[in-house]
Amino acid sequence: MTRGTLVDEERSWQVIEHQRLAVADLLAGLDATQWEADSLCAGWRVRDVAAHLTLVSLPPPARSLAADLVRARGSFHQLNTIASRRRAEWPPHRIVAALRESAASRQIPVVSNRHNVLFDVLVHGQDIAIPLGLDLPVPPPAAAEGASRVWAMGWPFHAKRRLAGLRLTATDVDWAAGAGADVHGPIVALLLLLTGRTATAAPMLTGDGVSRLSSSMT
User: Fold this and answer.
1) For 70-80, what is each residue's pLDDT tens digit?
2) Domain residue ranges of the chain, discontinuous segments joined by +
3) Looking at domain 140-216, does it have CATH number 3.30.1050?
């Protein structure tokens, strides 16, 4: 079971809009080298993650997605990669403008929901900021909602299976999940842990269970 300080639908969309604008502001200050830097997403540059964030609020035409799905042989992960890398070919200023102009969009992909849209922008914002040594604040209640959603779902993170035997407890918001050896830390760190960013999250966490995280690193 999880317990958490969740945010309602309206507040979720407000956080999503604010995070998109915050990511756009961060990106606008990057130089060419930083745009090409590795993100926390394996094999994805900062510009790939930034481009991905625009796909939710500004999706490609249906015909383009259908063609990409064929190329991806039905793999959602590969479809996402193909579409993101194509859009990453846009110049940085266009990616930033797209994020800003569509920040208030409440469009939801067919196979998704607002809870997924929320944790997606929160996590990917950190995927960009952390490797660059930059700070991108995340509201703890929104991160708690994201953590609850990730904990409840299976694919693609399989958090319950990966983190079996651990009791995760946030230190900055009322949220906890799992049972077993204790792992404590900021909810953002726990959200990164839940979504597979284990090597990044582990140094921000404490408790008897931290030493066991190495087996779940991805």
Assistant:
1) 575 666 677 77
2) 9-132, 140-216
3) yes
